[in-house]
Automatic annotation (TrEMBL):
Coiled coil: none annotated. Pfam families: AfsA. This is Gamma-butyrolactone biosynthesis protein ScbA. Residues 2-121, 157-242 form the A-factor biosynthesis hotdog domain.
Length: 275
């Protein structure tokens, strides 16, 4: 699953049921008091379930690079991560090929036999030699070399500590510079040559908290698309705005990441009132 820290591995096993259907099991560690761990646990469980099925059951070589193009999810509005004890989850997984080296994966997440969320993921993979040609100008040496600007106040993004903050102030409201602090082990498991997608999702969540605060913004839906890599060697600007929609009890925020004048990703998050 491309992870080096044992504590970052959430998936505990998998099984095949034929006809492109699988089951993955996962264990979430004992949760802290803050809500901030929920999004990371959810997205990591989705990502790891997809990768373990792809590598173990769909013949995707471990040596190949996977390219995430889409990660969407919905979460039951009344679901909460259990406190003071681990949580065991099950992911019902179905796959279909969308190309010679690409898959669409659909997951249903269950806790205590209750469905708590659904997800759709599109990704592809490329051979090492092709990836080296693609990424030749962005070697691993960029890791940890870029200056990390000072963070915004942690409480404004719904986090307890400055070390968790991935946004820095910019030139106007609704815009921030992405902080790529590779010392944050929860987001940066090991050296890579581009900013991990998990960091971009966390940046979107923190930006949504700022533009909707002070009430807690708890994502129960996410739609995301990734157009290009976010690099370490140039500033990435995060822009967020509340989407004007009819009053249906849901607040939606659109977040865009722009680097070198080009859109790198777009994420739309939704939080239910009182969620």
């Amino acid at each position: 699953m491309h992870l080096q820290q044992e504590e970052a591995v959430l998936v505990t096993g998998w099984s095949s049921h034929g006809a492109d259907r699988y089951t993955a099991t996962a264990r979430w560690p004992e949760a802290a008091d803050e809500e901030s761990s929920e999004l990371l646990l959810l997205t990591q469980t989705i990502r790891q379930s997809c990768l373990v099925v792809a590598h173990a059951e769909r013949s995707v070589p471990l040596s190949h690079q996977t390219l995430m193009e889409r990660l969407d999810f919905s979460l039951a509005q009344d679901y909460r991560v259990p406190r003071n004890k681990p949580a065991d989850l099950v992911a019902d997984v179905s796959c279909r090929s969308t190309g010679h080296r690409s898959l669409q994966v659909r997951l249903t997440l269950l806790h205590a036999e209750r469905p708590i969320g659904e997800s759709v993921v599109d990704f592809s993979w490329i051979a090492p030699a092709v990836y080296r040609r693609l990424r030749g100008e962005h070697p691993h040496s960029a890791w940890g070399k870029a200056p990390v600007p000072a963070p915004v106040a942690a409480h404004t993004v719904g986090r307890a500590h400055a070390s968790e903050v991935v946004l820095a102030p910019a030139d106007r409201p609704g815009r921030w510079q992405l902080r790529t602090d590779v010392g944050n082990a929860a987001l940066y498991d090991h050296p890579v040559d581009h900013v991990p997608g998990l960091v971009l999702i966390e940046a979107a969540c923190q930006a949504a908290q700022v533009v909707t605060g002070p009430a807690v913004f708890r994502p129960v839906e996410m739609a995301s698309a990734y157009a290009r890599y976010v690099e370490f060697d140039a500033p990435c600007w995060i822009e967020a705005a509340v989407v004007p929609v009819p009053d249906d009890g849901v607040t939606r925020v659109e977040v865009t990441g722009v680097q070198n004048g080009r859109t790198a990703f777009g994420i739309t998050l939704a939080s239910a009132s009182g969620a």
